[in-house]
Amino acid sequence: MAVARAPIWFQLYVLKDRGLTAAQVERVQAAGATALCVTVDSPLDGARYRQQRLKPEIPPGVTYPHLAGVREPASIQTLDHVVPANLTWKDIEWLRSITRVPLLLKGVMSGVDADAGIAAGADGIIVSNHGGRCLDTLPATIEVLPEVVAAVKGRVPVMVDGGISRGTDVVKALAPGAAAVHIGRPCVYGLAVGGAAGVEHVLKLLRQELLMAICLLGCRDIPSITPDVLWRRG
Length: 234
What we know:
Layout: E1 9-12, H1 18-30, E2 35-39, H2 49-54, H3 79-82, H4 89-98, E3 103-108, H5 111-119, E4 124-127, H6 141-152, E5 158-161, H7 167-174, E6 180-182, H8 185-216
Parallel strand pairs: 1-2, 2-3, 3-4, 4-5, 5-6
Helix pairs in contact: 5-6, 7-8
């Protein structure tokens, strides 16, 4: 029996060398990527003091996929040399013109930027604050989500990441209008502990918790999770 292939999305960092970026886009599309997630909130690294103290290095012969072909040393300390500080909406329009798969913008934290991103050709918006590791004192993504959903007005899907670790967190994201959530750290923990089976177990737990929450809220299904299920003080 044939097994359906899971969608694979590629997270793209637009490099100073636009020719290299174009080559990467073509390469991942040829490899079967079903969507391109463009990082729009990290033109350079923030004050990551823990990384500076630990001085992590990438093992010899290993590089980040989005830096394939870059001649500079591929270490965490040099990312700011290959990620441009001048990414504009014109660059998003250019990417849309060379991309055959859906183009999603990852790192949107305001309704104004969401609207501009759609105007530039984005097929989806991902509300994300880069894990809070770039700019200090950013609001939580769950706080920004309603504003972005209101600005998008259903024109494209709005997704959200950051702090999704329980099924109830998924409910809190779906209720204001998120079409989907992105889960990172729990899956990484599962991978570290049990490999692919560990990731599968984490997703199983999240699904069970989500279904339990739906039942306890009196909802029939995911579409019936509306803003009125959220409890607000006052």
